[in-house]
Amino acid sequence: MRRALLVIAFLAATAAWAQPTISGDAFLNLREGYVSGPPSWLSGGFGRLGIGGDTYRGNAVAQLGLDWQPAFWFSAHAMVLGRAEPSGSRGKRAGVVGAFVEVRNQHWRLRGGQFFLGTSRENTGPLWTSPYMQTFSALNTWIGEEFRPVGIDLQWSPNFYGSVGATAFRNNDTAGALLAWRGWSVGNRLTVYNEVLPLPPLTSLRTQFTDQRADGTVPFERDLDGRTGYALRARVQTPERAMLQITHVDNNGDRREYRGEYAWKTRFNVVSAEVGTSSPVIVLAEYTWGRTGMGVQPVLVDADFDAGYVLASYKRGANRWSVRFDRFATSDRDRSPIVETNSEQGRAWAIAWLRDVGAHLRLSAEFVQVTGDRIAAQESGFDPNLDARSVSVELRYSLR
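Request: output the structure for the sequence above.
Response:
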């Protein structure tokens, strides 16, 4: 991996002598809404939404992405964000979402740095945004929060109808901690590098895992166990009509503790499909299944997980209407008597209306409902009912 990154850096220095082209994207999102449900996981509760507790709350997020292309075969990309969140929310207010360089020709693409893997069919807008809804599916909410490779990615596209790719990565050792200890959530929050995310007030975190880093987890940080994970993917498509992709990911964690955190061993697959790519009506679907775990007997966590969604969207003129249905589950496999039961099942559905108000403004309204109990909350002395609803209005200003 180091040699490959050195080669990319050398090519970048060579390309710098060419005439550069700089472009970018910028978004400012202002959102106000009413939320009912338990306290949010972002404030240390069990709630599945980014905001919780029967109240009106707003937030603001600014995103900036820059693309530098000094030569037709080389480019560099960086993405940062800043946010203003409700009082009591934990985590960073600003940071780096991703940064990578890329070299390519007609059939090959080599990428190095931190980047989204490209499994999502709903997050296809600039800066990993969704052109369909304000919030993401449970699956892509988790991807945005806890999985973003830091490494190298090689893709081969022999023609317009298919491609295959392979990724070697590190710095994603804690992927799985949120799913097992917090459970699935629905939102649109992107974790930045070296950000500490809160974990819920589980009894085991107060007794068995007292050295866990400030009752939090750091999805993207300096590698813990020194082991390299990998991902493989294959895609077939009919350009502008339909596509099907399957991806396998294994972070190769060793389950041991380092610097007050555990290297989780997390493996999962993602199947993605899309029909009607360039038509007014588009249908998207994704499904993931896998396993995650950490520790050894007698203190350990082992869980299976799966999640999927179907999204249908219709665009006419300046208006777009979208509806999405989610299902998610986690099954506890360790049955440890000193760790909470991590099993859960839930559903969510959302409906959204988006309207372009001129060249740079987008107005949208969305309703989201999430249902599903969590046994671990009850075992820690809290209400297991995590049902929640939100109604929100968002104004987005964009520059490109």
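The longest strand covers residues 299-316.
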